[in-house]
Amino acid sequence: MSSQNWPHDPDGEQGSEGRRKYGHAVFVKKVDEEEDFPLRAGDYREEFGDHPVRLDADTVIAVEDVFQHIDDDTEFADIVAFHKALGETMRDNDYWTYEGADAFTRTRG
Hints:
This protein has one domain. It contains five helices and four strands; from the N terminus they run H-E-H-E-E-H-E-H-H. It has helices at 24-28, 41-48, 63-67, 79-92, 101-105, and strands at residues 39-40, 52-54, 60-62, 75-76. Strand 2 (52-54) and strand 3 (60-62) form a beta hairpin. The protein is globular, with a radius of gyration of 14 Å.
């Protein structure tokens, strides 16, 4: 676990829910599908940037670590667009820890 002072416990109910949720799920649980979209990346980053995200049993990062790779002016029209952009960014920057993710998410040529 990181030695950073988090605004809340990364494994508490505001974090990874006692280690029941990891990575992508922790980012998505911070938004409301009905009320928060369209959502600007910079607004999400500003509100949650210092929040912890558990990627796996051993790794905790900040929301900021992933969102630094997404332009603040990017707007997500809905939760599907948010999911897609977040997943792509996590995979492209080695934050995606699930084995075989590319087999399910990359277009085959």
